[in-house]
């Protein structure tokens, strides 16, 4: 009886999740291939005139091919930010796990507070202006790294807890200390959680809208999410082009989820169980 109830609950949850995902996704696809007049209705009607190529071309050519520049900017931003997050978070997680004490507890509390305390936009802008990094990609990379580190540190710290300290001691006896100990002995063992951090961090940075909007205004350093503004105005929104842009922006994260969802779950589960 319990098995039947459990299967029923799982089936209901699966159906609800499918409906919640498919309804907006279907509306997005249908609107993206309509003309501007029919797209303004925002309904599930079949397109009277399929404008796939026309809408795609219009989105790419909008504002001197800003979408192509935005894809380049988003790629650079994502790769640089995730690389720094992985390296710094892995090192910080190793130190916090191996060196317990009052200082470690304080540092752990600060890391946890990074997940709880909301970001301060205006002071961050002042700081970037003082450093000469406001409205630049390097400045935005620093912001993304700062916001992404706490979550990654907690994952690495939980996973490193499963690695025996005897391994560190054996490597130190062989003369491997400091950075060599970490990068030659510990870091290769962190492959599952590293993959998880890379995938989740890449999707988070690529899909980020607020930080690029605040810290890199303008078309020169625009990211793909910011290009959604190109097809909105006060009086008339080009819904067909807006949704076509959303489709193009959604493709990379969706493909990453489809092909690597098992690795994401495996890395997070391993860290949770072993920590």
TrEMBL record:
Bilayer-spanning residue ranges: 12-33, 76-96, 103-128, 140-160, 181-206, 239-260
UniProt keyword Membrane, yes or no: yes
CDD domains: TM_PBP2 (cd06261)
Subcellular location: Cell membrane
Record InterPro entries: MetI-like
Coiled coil: none
Keywords linked to the UniProt accession: Cell membrane, Membrane, Transmembrane, Transmembrane helix, Transport
Membrane-protein topology: Multi-pass membrane protein
Pfam families in alphabetical order: BPD_transp_1
Domain ABC transmembrane type-1, chain residue ranges per copy: 71-260
Entry annotated with the keyword Electron transport: no
Family the UniProt entry places it in: Belongs to the binding-protein-dependent transport system permease family.
Protein name: Carbohydrate ABC transporter permease
């Amino acid at each position: 009886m319990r098995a039947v109830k459990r299967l029923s609950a799982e089936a209901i949850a699966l159906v609800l999740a499918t409906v919640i995902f498919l309804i907006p996704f279907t509306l997005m696809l249908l609107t993206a291939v309509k003309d501007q007049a029919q797209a303004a209705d925002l309904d599930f009607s079949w397109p009277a005139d399929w404008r796939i190529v026309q809408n795609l071309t219009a989105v790419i050519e909008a504002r001197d091919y800003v979408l192509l520049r935005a894809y380049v900017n988003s790629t650079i931003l994502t790769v640089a930010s995730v690389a720094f997050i992985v390296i710094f978070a892995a090192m910080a997680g190793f130190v916090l796990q191996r060196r317990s004490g009052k200082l470690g507890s304080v540092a752990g509390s600060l890391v946890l507070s990074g997940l709880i305390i909301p970001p301060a936009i205006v002071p961050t802008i002042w700081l970037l202006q003082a450093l000469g990094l406001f409205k630049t990609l390097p400045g935005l990379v620093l912001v993304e790294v700062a916001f992404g580190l706490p979550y990654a540190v907690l994952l690495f710290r939980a996973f490193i807890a499963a690695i025996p300290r005897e391994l560190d001691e054996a490597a130190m006896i062989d003369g491997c200390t400091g950075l060599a100990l970490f990068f030659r002995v510990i870091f290769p063992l962190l492959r599952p959680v590293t993959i998880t951090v890379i995938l989740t961090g890449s999707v988070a940075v690529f899909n980020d809208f607020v930080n690029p909007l605040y810290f890199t205004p303008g078309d020169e350093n625009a990211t793909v999410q910011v290009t959604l503004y190109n097809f909105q105005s006060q009086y008339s929104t080009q819904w067909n082009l807006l949704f076509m842009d959303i489709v193009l922006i959604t493709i990379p994260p969706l493909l990453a989820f489809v092909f690597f969802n098992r690795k994401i779950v495996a890395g997070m589960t391993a860290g949770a169980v072993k920590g």
